[in-house]
Amino acid sequence: MGVRYFKELVKDIFYPKDYSCVFCRWPLEKEYLCIMCRDKLIEVNGEKHIKIENETLNVNYIFLYSGYAVELIQKLKYKSDFRVGEIFAEYICNFIKSKCLENIDYITYIPMHRIDERKRKYNQCKVISKYISDYYDIDMIDTLIKTKRTKDQIGLSKNQRFRNLENVFRVKENLDIKNKTILIIDDVCTTGSTLYYCKKELQKLDPKEIIILTVCAR
Ligand SMILES: [Zn+2]
């Protein structure tokens, strides 16, 4: 019996999980989403190419950000429903397998500002990353710090919003990712600005490759 299996077993005995669909509450076996509700998600498993400055940002994503996918993101983000984190991790792991992206050295995620994270008590991207890290036994590392709060972007033009994110993210000190393949996880990609700046920061440390994977994209 593997250590991981044993840990899972212990967890199940002491913290029995409520296996039912997060949407319709249909009882299930070891799952949180029933077939009917799964069908309502628009699964793309595609790649988006976003032109930013003079570069093209490649963003892999699982779902189209609409309908049920928006509801799932909200459950995880605002209602602390971590079962959704497991659902997303399951889709992401299947995507990683299908695209043969399995030579990843580290998993990381888009950080929140410490004040916002303290308020929410968790970072939803970190939650998803942790599940993937456990599943694949790949280390999850904190790589970036968000130095400014950027919530109030209302009233700014697309270009102003983009400029507003400049110098907001910073790589952590003493981070060694040289020649490593890094997977960055984000929940929703809209303009790609956040991912663009985060990738730029990580690139300063000469990684071999940075793969971007978001749960949803528009
Ligand atoms: Zn259901």
Automatic annotation (TrEMBL):
Residues 164-218 form the Phosphoribosyltransferase domain. It comes from the Bacteria. CDD domains: PRTases_typeI. It holds the Pfam family Pribosyltran. SUPFAM superfamilies: PRTase-like. Belongs to the ComF/GntX family. This is ComF protein, homolog.
